[in-house]
Amino acid sequence: MKPDLLQMIAYPDWDQIPLQVAYQVHRYFEAADKPAFLAKVGSQIHAIATRGELGASAQIIAACPQLELIAV
Q1: I need a labelling partner for 20 at 20 to 30 A (CA). Which of 46, 49, 58, 72 fits?
Q2: What pTM did the predictor assign?
């Protein structure tokens, strides 16, 4: 089973395809109700993929108790 990843922003195919191969990707940026989405998947998340200017807020990190990695 692949680890769950919270994807904060869209990536080009050369990044997106390897993410999808290695992780079960949850696309936060596409969620209409982000707090509800995070409440649903947060407990499963082991990694966050983001960009430097976006980062990951303390609220998002707190919603992911299994979090092991934030990658930029």
Answers
A1: 58
A2: 0.94
Name, in order, each residue with C-beta under 8 angstroms of 42's C-beta and a sequence gap of 6 or more.
6, 63, 64, 65
Three-state SS annotation for the chain: CCCEEEECCCCCHHHHHHHHHHCEEEEHHHCCCHHHHHHHHHHHEEEEECCCCCCCCHHHHHCCCCCCEEEC
Q: Distance (Å, rounded) from C-alpha 61 to C-alpha 56?
A: 7
CA distance 33 to 26: 13
